[in-house]
Each structure stands twice: as C-alpha cells, then as structure tokens.
Design goal:
The complex is a heterodimer. Chain A is about 40% helix and about 35% strand. Chain A is an alpha/beta fold. Chain A has a single domain, classed as Ribosomal Protein S5, domain 2, CATH 3.30.230.10. The relative contact order of chain A is 0.34. Chain B is globular. Chain B has a 9-stranded mixed beta sheet, sandwiched between helices. Chain B has an 8-stranded mixed beta sheet with strand order 13-12-11-10-14-17-21-22. In chain B, strands 16-15-20 form a 3-stranded mixed beta sheet. Helices cover about 30% and strands about 20% of the residues of chain B. Chain B folds into 2 domains: about 140 residues, Glutaconate Coenzyme A-transferase (3-Layer(aba) Sandwich); about 240 residues, Glutaconate Coenzyme A-transferase, CATH 3.40.1080.10. Chain B is built from 15 helices and 24 strands. The chains are: A alpha/beta, B alpha/beta. Chains A and B meet through helix 1 of A and loops of B.
C-alpha cells in the first residue's frame, strides 16, 4: 500500500502533452480535464487508474490536464508525477 | 462636387437602408477591422433591423455581431470564413437562420447571378479621394490588395467608402474607381495595423511540418508540372510556407522560370518573384507587410478582383490557369473530401475561403496535414462537413506517407517511381488510429446552423449544432 506524501507534478500544458498534479488525499481520486474528453475521456481515466494500480498507489489525488497527448505520454506523465509524490 | 458626407449616419441614411436589406463588408483588414462593428453599431442606433450581413470573411474582432443577432438587427449571415470565437457561438445555436457559407469565387458569382443581391456595400479603404477612387496600397492602415471588395463595389446597389486617409483628387493606382462609389465617409481610424497584416509570416520549425513540407515539394517536383511556365498557390500556414521554401530551392537549382504565383500573397511569394521563380504575382489579398510593399512598388505584382481570382461565372478566372495549389485541412475522409469549416468536435472554426475554388481549378491540388493533431486522426471515414469535394483533391501529404486519389493512377505511378512513400489513404487512417486509439463517435445536434454552398451555387453540406 503506497500513498502520495507530498504535492508533485510532471508534464507541460503544450499541445499534445499532459500536465499531471498529485497531492495527498484519504482515497484515490482522479480528476480529468481533456481537450479530447468527448472522444477519449473514459479511455484516459482507465489508463490513469491502471498506472496508479501498477505503482500500487491507493491514496492520493491525481489531477490530469490533457492537451491531446497520446496514451503512452499520459501514462509516462502520470507515473512520473506519482513517483515524485511518493518520495519522502 | 464631392461625395464626402459628414458622418457615417448620413451615409447610411443617404443609402436608404431599410429593414430586411442586405449590407456587405470585405475582410482585407482581417482581425484589425474597425469598420464592420462601427457600421453595425450605427445601424443598430438608427433602429434598422432584420438585416442580412454579407461579409467575405468574419473574424473574432467581429464578436459584437452576436449582440446585433440577439437584438434582431441582424437575422442572416453570409460569409466565406468564420473564426472560431464566432463559430462556437453559431454552433451553439446563436442564430435562428442558418449561416450561408460560400467560397471566395462563389460569393461574387452569386452576387453576379442575383442570388445574393447587396443593397449597401460598406467598403473600408486605406486611401481614398473625395470622389471615391480608393486603394489599399497607401495610408496608415494599408492592407495591400482590395480584391474581395471589388465584387461589393461592382454589384451593390449603393456603395459607401469608409477611409481614414483622404487624399487629393485624383488618387492614382486605384483598386475601386469612382464610377462605382456613391459616398465617402472619413473616420479617425479604420483598423488596427497590428491586426491587419502580420509583420512577418514564419516558416515552421516543427520537424513533422518540415517532413510534410519536404514531401510536398518533392511531389510537385515529380508531378510533371514543374517546368518553365509553372504556376503556384500556397497558404500562409507554417508547413505550406516551408513547402514553398523547399520548392524555391528546387526551382533555382533546376533554373525553372514559373509564370505566376497566386493568392493570398506572403513575403515568401515575393521572395520567389524577386529570385526569378515567377514572372508575376496575382494578388487578391496581402498577408504581410512585405506583400503590401511589393504590390505598391513592383509592377510585376498585380492586384486582382475576387471575380478574376476565382469566380466560376466569369469568362475565365486565374484559378483555371493554376498548376499547383497547396491547401490545409482539419479533416480528410477516405473519399478525399476535405473539411475546413469545423473542428474535430464539430464547432465552426473556419470556412472555404478560396479552398474549393483553387482545388477545382488547379491541375494538382494537394492537402498538407499531419497524421493526427492533439490525438485526433486527420483521416476519418466521413468528414464532419464537406468543404471541398474529394473529386477536386489529388493528393494528401502527411509525415507518414502520401495518399494519391485513385482517380489519379498516372500521378501515383510517377511519384512511386521517384521513390516517394505512396500509401493507401485507408492505411493512413489505420496508422493514425494505431497511435491515438479509435476516437468515440460524437453525436451531432438536431439543428442546422449553417449551409455550405458550393462555388457553383449548389448545397454541398449542412453543419449541425453542437449540444454537448
């Protein structure tokens, strides 16, 4: 069981990238804003949940601001933000 | 005698403007234009309503139109292009009547055919004399060519020139002659020079854009059309300009002397003229300061009207003599239909402009577009809106390969033997979706918010509301 211990972030607000912020919380909560919400919203939410599960994170708030990033980019940005947030 | 009246209000009253009439505007001042808003506010203050506004293009500087739509001053819009801010409001259902989209050639054609009669044309002119001879080449708000306004001056029943630079009679080098003008109004300023022309138009530095541009130049090189007498049009987008720059290198290397460059003229086309790539430039609209200066100084740089540029009902138009045009797209479908009216969410954010006119006229019409933009594939099964029909498109260039319309077997063979990566357009769609995932299908709204009318006057497609 791992949790987000501090505020951290990864990524940029450039087109085709995503900016991810994480912070401590009592449960795992994902918040998504995306320019392709209508086309890919559920797929992005599933990818974020999957990365969190792979990292073993069960507590923390994950905020994804997606500017049309490919799924591999979103996964990398989320993983980086989670790892940074789990550090002491 | 003088045609100068004391105020805009007097000019409107002298024009006899009444409820339900049509007023027209040109877009050479682009996003720097003060005149459309100034005139519409004066008309609103006079209490006239139910008007049709026929504008060659509308920009977001014209957002106050939404207030005039809501208050009933304006009931119908006719235009060739609408920027994204206005487009979003229209897509959301801001108007009861559908917007009528035409092309830069179809607009003057429908004026000439009497389909869209104009009662009063309000023409912003950067320089004008007291009898109405006017030009875009001079003055503090110089915009260069007044090509689109020439149609309004020719066909409107009553013509008002609005200027901030009144010069002694006679102004020489006019675009519109006094024979077509009823009155002249002077105002403090017709526009903001920063919004009228860009100081410089820039080539892309994006590696994807440069790959596409290099393919585009090589397609032209091996098309069989690049020889002495070659003619060319390209847009002002970064990748299109880069393609022009690569093409210039090829033309200079092989000592090819083209006949003319057409368009929407940028400094890059002026450079090509000066370098000897072309004998002439045919200019319906200047995009930057270098183009304005060249039109003013260089007799090889010729201003042309919208009719001369692209009208399908004139005895001939320059697009009919065009070899190659490079065009953009928000979407292209597997039948090569092109959308430049709406974005991938269905919101209006553009329009044909001269897209379908040049595509219909040119021997080779080429679309340059990336495989996907912000995770949305460019190639789709069916475009949201058909702006230019696939029968008029020859080639789609992406960074992942070049798709040739199957009607053009010979061209595909030529390009293939030149070593270019020719692929089926469906393979581009699959490749993009392999990277992005398959986007969910978006439901369309119930209401028709715009009619897209082809250059020959037929209903080509309809744009529906966005209700998400």
């Amino acid at each position: 069981m791992k949790e987000i211990r501090k505020k951290a972030w990864a990524g940029t607000m450039e087109s085709s990238d995503a900016y991810v912020e994480v912070e401590p919380a009592q449960t795992l909560a994902v918040e998504l804003q995306s320019v392709v919400q209508a086309q890919f919203g559920p797929a992005i939410e599933a990818a974020v949940a999957d990365v969190a599960a792979q990292c073993g994170v069960t507590k923390g708030r994950v905020k994804v601001m997606d500017r049309g990033a490919l799924e591999c980019v979103i996964r990398a940005r989320v993983e980086t933000a989670l790892l940074r947030g789990m550090e002491e | 005698m003088t045609k100068v009246v004391s105020s805009l209000r007097e000019a409107i009253e002298r024009a006899g403007l009444k409820d339900g009439m049509t007023v027209s505007f040109h877009h050479h001042l682009r996003n720097g234009d003060y005149v459309l808003n100034m005139v519409m506010q004066e008309i609103a203050d006079l209490g006239v309503g139910g008007l049709t506004v026929n504008a060659s293009s509308l920009f977001d500087v014209h957002l106050p139109l939404l207030d005039h739509i809501q208050s009933g001053v304006v009931s119908t819009l006719q235009t060739d292009y609408m920027a994204a801010g206005l487009g979003r409001a229209i897509s959301r259902g801001a108007m009861a009547n559908p917007v009528q989209f035409r092309t830069h050639g179809g607009r003057p054609a429908d004026m000439a055919r009497g389909v869209t009669p104009v009662d009063v044309a309000f023409i912003a002119a950067p320089a004008c004399d007291c009898m109405g001879n006017c030009s875009g080449k001079f003055g503090p708000s110089a915009c260069g060519s007044l090509g689109y306004a020439m149609a309004d001056a020719r066909y409107a029943k009553h013509v008002v020139i609005i200027t901030d630079h009144l010069v002694p009679y006679p102004l020489q080098g006019w675009s519109i002659p006094e024979t077509e003008v009823d009155s002249v109004v002077t105002v403090d300023s017709i526009g903001d020079p920063k919004g009228i022309v860009s100081g410089t138009t820039r080539i892309t530095r994006d590696p994807v854009g440069l790959v596409m541009a290099s393919y585009a130049a090589r397609v032209i090189e091996h098309s069989g059309l690049l020889k002495d007498g070659f003619s060319f049009q390209t847009g002002a987008g970064g990748a299109s300009l880069a393609a022009a720059s690569f093409l210039k290198d090829i033309m200079l290397r092989d000592k090819i002397r083209g006949s003319f460059g057409l368009g929407g003229i940028t400094g890059y086309m002026v450079d090509m003229l000066r370098a000897g790539c072309f004998e002439k430039l045919m200019d319906v609209q200047c995009f930057d300061l270098q183009a304005v200066e060249s039109l003013r100084e260089d007799p090889r740089h010729q201003e042309i009207s919208a009719m001369h540029y692209a009208s399908p009902v004139t005895k001939s138009a320059v697009v009919d003599s065009l070899d190659v045009v490079i065009l953009g797209a928000t979407e292209v479908d597997t039948d090569f239909n092109v959308n430049v009216h709406t974005d991938s969410n269905g919101y209006i954010m553009g329009g044909s402009g001269g897209h379908s006119d040049t595509a219909a006229g040119a021997k080779l019409s080429m679309i340059i577009a990336p495989l996907f933009r912000a995770r949305l594939p460019i190639v789709t099964d069916r475009v949201h809106c058909i702006s230019t029909p696939g029968k008029d498109i020859d080639v789609l260039v992406t960074q992942a390969g070049i798709a040739v319309n199957p009607k053009n077997g010979e061209l595909a063979d030529r390009l293939r033997s030149a070593g270019l990566p020719i692929v089926d357009i469906r393979a581009l769609k699959e490749k993009a979706e392999g990277l992005t995932g398959k986007p969910a299908h978006l439901p369309q709204g119930q209401r028709v918010v715009a009619d897209v009318i082809s250059r020959d006057g037929q209903l080509l497609d309809q744009i529906r509301s966005v209700e998400r």
